[in-house]
């Protein structure tokens, strides 16, 4: 029989996961499934040949008849070794392509009725005339379309080998020795050349199988060249990115080296003798800040990162700024709170005329606070028209209790980041106004006046009113999380007072506050305010003399 003719064979089948074996390939396989081992044993008992067929889905543990591709490779078992754990290591060599016409499961292993696909070794025109007689009319037409003259063979050979050489130069994962094996393949062995190249390319399973099923050698080579072109473009992009990163690293290392040289020169000149070491200075500040454990660990981690960076790099500036904020925030310092209600009433009476019911409620509130260590009561919200003294009442409460005074105007605030801060991934990020003002005042227990709380609005950047819910809830503000600091901050010692011109406040926010209404003043009250407060201020402001 002519060896180029299709031959029908009966042969055991070995299913493979994520592997396609081509003719001319020698590859070791580890076999563990019981059916696969039986298939190899059957092959060893006969002619030591087995058909290697890839599974359609690698995740299928027990493949059925319909789970395998129809085209595979008939291979010779060179060596078979049983391992102690029950698995089998086998060395196989691909021989020829074959198509399964029927596949059965005999209970022990898969058995296929298959036929060899015609060998695709390219013939010269002279040789083809001699061999055509051995084929049917259909086969002769198929082979005639595949026959190439010597020049066409040479062009195909050179083109794909040159392209693969360029690809190997970019893909360092393929050993250079592969080129040596390629050059040993003869020019008329294009079939073997294509299979060898395909076996070394990182193709997906579907593409590997597609190459195996391609009967036309020209189509197979063109497909491999297209895949190499695509992979080469990706590798070139990867190389450009890698070179760009390398240059950036070299630049950073060069800057660091030059900065260290500059420091050494300045030290020799005596210019840095009195300059404190930045690392030791920040470390000392972190220890002095008396942070909670979580915040202390975070600050220490950032300090270690800063130590490894170039001092002049942009990232070092960001980390340094973060540590500066961490040590500025008051984690432990408190001001001494006054609990003398008589003096508190004197302060309120001195600063404000009238408002007896309002003062009485404020004194009741302060009386309760004087008897507890933590402020757990509702937040006072002073509601009234402009000019009735809401903001100055907040100042008087701070003065009466001996607390530091902070005022945060909420009119027009529409960005949640004003309350919670920006994440450090943003350029120019900072903590929210809440943390900024706490850092400025330097104590954990100030009086914090949220002025014009009804003037907040929301848009695409978030809802600041929702962010304030956590701030004003006594059960939650013990662990307020600012996006910039990335650690919890305790606001439970802060005395919050809010002011509003109307009751147009979001309901969830209003539930957390006790409303104290301030109405307008009567004519007699206005006259007394003018005499006791305004007149003396205007005389002093305009440099006039007081006349009895």
TrEMBL record:
- Which EC numbers does the record give? 3.4.21.53
Q: What is this protein called?
A: endopeptidase La
Subcellular locations according to the entry: Cytoplasm
Map out region (Disordered) in residue numbers.
127-148
The top of its lineage is: Bacteria, Pseudomonadati, Pseudomonadota, Gammaproteobacteria, Enterobacterales
Task: Return one Gene Ontology term, BP aspect.
Answer: proteolysis
What this protein catalyses is: Hydrolysis of proteins in presence of ATP
State a single Pfam family of this protein: LON_substr_bdg
A Gene Ontology cellular-component term:
cytoplasm
Q: Name one GO molecular function term.
A: DNA binding
EC primary class: hydrolase
- List each copy of the Lon N-terminal domain by range: 11-232
Q: Any idea which UniProt keywords this protein has?
A: ATP-binding, Cytoplasm, DNA-binding, Hydrolase, Nucleotide-binding, Protease, Serine protease, Stress response
């Amino acid at each position: 029989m002519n060896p180029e003719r299709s031959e029908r064979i009966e042969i055991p089948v070995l299913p493979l996961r994520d592997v396609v074996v081509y003719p001319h390939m020698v590859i070791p396989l580890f076999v563990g499934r019981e059916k696969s081992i039986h298939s190899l044993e059957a092959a060893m008992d006969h002619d030591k040949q087995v058909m290697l067929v890839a599974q359609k889905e690698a995740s299928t543990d027990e493949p059925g008849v319909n789970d395998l591709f129809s085209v595979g490779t008939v291979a010779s078992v060179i060596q078979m070794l049983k391992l102690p754990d029950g698995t089998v290591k086998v060395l196989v060599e691909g021989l020829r392509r074959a198509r399964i016409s029927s596949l059965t499961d005999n209970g022990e292993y898969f058995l296929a009725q298959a036929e060899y696909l015609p060998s695709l070794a390219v013939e010269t025109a002279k040789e083809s005339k001699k061999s055509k007689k051995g084929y049917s009319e259909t086969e002769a037409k198929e082979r005639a379309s595949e026959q190439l003259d010597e020049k066409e063979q040479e062009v195909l050979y050179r083109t794909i080998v040159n392209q693969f050489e360029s690809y190997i130069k970019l893909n360092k994962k393929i050993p250079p020795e592969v080129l040596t094996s390629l050059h040993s393949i003869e020019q008329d062995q294009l079939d073997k050349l294509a299979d060898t190249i395909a076996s070394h390319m990182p193709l997906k399973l579907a593409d590997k199988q597609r190459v195996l099923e391609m009967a036309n050698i020209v189509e197979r080579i063109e497909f491999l060249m297209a895949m190499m072109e695509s992979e080469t473009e990706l590798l070139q992009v990867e190389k450009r990115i890698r070179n760009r990163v390398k240059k950036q690293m070299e630049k950073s290392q060069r800057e660091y080296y030059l900065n260290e040289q500059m420091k050494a020169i300045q030290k020799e000149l005596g210019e840095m003798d009195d300059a404190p070491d930045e690392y030791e200075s920040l470390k000392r500040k972190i220890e002095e800040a008396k942070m909670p454990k979580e915040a202390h660990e975070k600050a220490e981690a950032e300090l270690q990162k800063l130590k490894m960076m170039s001092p002049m790099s942009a990232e070092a500036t960001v980390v340094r700024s973060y540590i500066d904020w961490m040590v500025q925030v008051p984690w432990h310092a408190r001001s001494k709170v006054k609990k003398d209600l008589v003096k508190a009433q004197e302060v309120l009476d001195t600063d404000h005329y009238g408002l007896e019911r309002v003062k009485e409620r404020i004194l009741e509130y302060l009386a309760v606070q004087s008897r507890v260590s933590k402020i757990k009561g509702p937040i006072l919200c002073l509601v009234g028209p402009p000019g009735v003294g809401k903001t100055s009442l907040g100042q008087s409460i701070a003065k009466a209790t001996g607390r530091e005074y902070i005022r945060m105007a909420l009119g027009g605030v529409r960005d949640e980041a004003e309350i919670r801060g920006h994440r450090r991934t943003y350029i120019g990020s900072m903590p929210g106004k809440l943390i900024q003002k706490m850092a400025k005042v330097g104590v954990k227990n100030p009086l914090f006046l949220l002025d014009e709380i009804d003037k907040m609005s929301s848009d695409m950047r978030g809802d600041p009113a929702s962010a304030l819910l956590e701030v004003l809830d006594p059960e939650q503000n013990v662990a307020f999380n600012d996006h910039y600091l990335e650690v919890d901050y305790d606001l439970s010692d802060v005395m919050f007072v809010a002011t509003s011109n109307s009751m147009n406040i979001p309901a969830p926010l209003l539930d957390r506050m006790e409303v104290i209404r301030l109405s307008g003043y009567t004519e007699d009250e206005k006259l007394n305010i003018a005499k006791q407060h305004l007149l003396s201020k205007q005389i002093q402001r305009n440099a006039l003399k007081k006349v009895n």
